[in-house]
Amino acid sequence: MLIGNTTPVPPASTNMRLSLELPEDLQLSYFGGDGLGLEVPAFALSRDGEKMVYVADSAGTSVLVSHEMGSKEFKVLPSTFNAYYPVFSPDGSSIAYLANETIYTVGFESGRPIPLTSTSDAMGLYWSDDNWIYWSNQQGLVVQRITPSGNLDSKIIAADICRCYNISQGIEYGDVLVSGINGAFHISANGETNQTKHIGVNSIVVDSKYMVSVGTGSLIAGGIAFIEQTDEVDLGKVVLSDVRTSSIGQRAHFAVSDDGTLMYALGKQAGLTRLVVRSPNGEIQTLPFEAQSHGHMDATRDGSKIAVHYLDGTDRLMVYDLERQTATPFLQESNIYGAIWNEGGTAITYSHTEGDSSSVMTREVNSSRGSEVLLTGQGNLTPSDWSSDNRFLIYSQTIGSFSRLGVLDTMDSTSTTIIELEGRAWSGKFSPDDSLIAYTHIAGQGSEVFVEPFPPTKQRWNVSSGIGEEPEWREDTNELIFRGKGAWFSVSYETGPPVFGTPRYLFEGPYVNIYGLEYRVLSRGDVLLQEAVNKEFFTNRLEVITNFNSVVREVVDSTAR
Prior knowledge:
- The protein is mainly beta and 561 residues long.
- Helices cover 2% and strands 50% of the residues.
- The chain contains one helix and 52 strands.
- It has a five-stranded antiparallel beta sheet with strand order 1-2-52-25-24, with no helix packed on it. Strands 44, 45, 46, 47 and 48 form a five-stranded antiparallel beta sheet that branches.
- A hairpin with a 2-residue loop joins strand 41 and strand 42.
- The protein is globular, with a radius of gyration of 23 Å.
């Protein structure tokens, strides 16, 4: 039920701030049924603000719960198991949601779920005013759409423009806004795409004039501005703090109805992490470094040095030295990511993106020399592993909806293609003897871990037997470790010829999933992990602010005056 709260919401004087109490046995789940263990938006408001639906934890699974604002009834929608990312139809009579690598629709009042189409690691969903259901597929690589009756548009709406994690209403009828790692892009009804100047994964348009994006633990509002504009526009002022934000891409649990009602989850951001090492017997050692918004990271084999990107807006690539207990900036430059150590820990290799192309670069750690360019090409080039003799470098290249996993021979600067396919192939890793390469392939029914010989022989083994990603070889035993559904698994193997066993559950815990690699298997089987500081996975309370659009208008327009 709604409970009044006398806390004012400056600067507008016509707002009311309320709290919506959820049943104790149907608490909102921040993670829901997402197969990658990611935190995604867990509730939705109807356009008129009269209805809401959210993802609840019930008997160990996630289900959808519907609620009419102002009433005391909370109703579990039957057979919506493993649901996540619900959205309303334009008239509020139906709900679309994701579950089990499938898009479903279900009536708000009653009915059983109807499957529409299969997905693959979908990360965003939106039901447009012109009655298309959009979703971002393959971890945001492509945006597609389907009608509620199941007619799939064969045209890919967007491909690799932003790693699109969020889809929402655009400026005009039939327009959509997609936002992700590379920014926010406006796609008009005629297919024209324009990049905005806004940086924010979870962006929405308010009043066709303003944009609200997510900062670290806050909502930020500004005027809409596109890259080609030369006039100055204030891109963002904080309009609300203490908003629960996730560990990947600063996504938040919030929704705004057409009448300006804001609903959000109050709480600390989940992206603040501490680095810990977990031993094979489950003992946890917290490393002596401050909690930060850690991003992609890699470690030397012995774990004595860690290269980690900060996701705090400073564009810093840091080096943690465990023996000296120091944290030292290594690079501070925009558009760099994917840092990995070479064998021996004397240099760091990373990706640098510039427009539609990118470069793989390497730089010695204890040297005054600049970075050396190893490889350049179109799309996104990302290094993932060096061979034991530092001769071969595995990298991935993504152009549009296609990916290529390659190996660079630094002796003669030639490249060998391991696999080239539609979808996304990444996180390639050499086996300890360099004879095998394990990698993640995102396509079909989600992420899978595959292994191929090196040099390639066209043989290929699926070793994850379901959802799996980010493989890591354990050097002291014949085991391949990977992550899947928020847990870690191990597969035993034999060489000559390769034979792989059945995945075996290892562990799970309060460890985040981020854009990039968030764990590393060290020598002796220790695992370096990012442990969430905020370990709240559920809440029984949501905050409501009426007439939130007026707050946005006053903050943005007063700054412009």
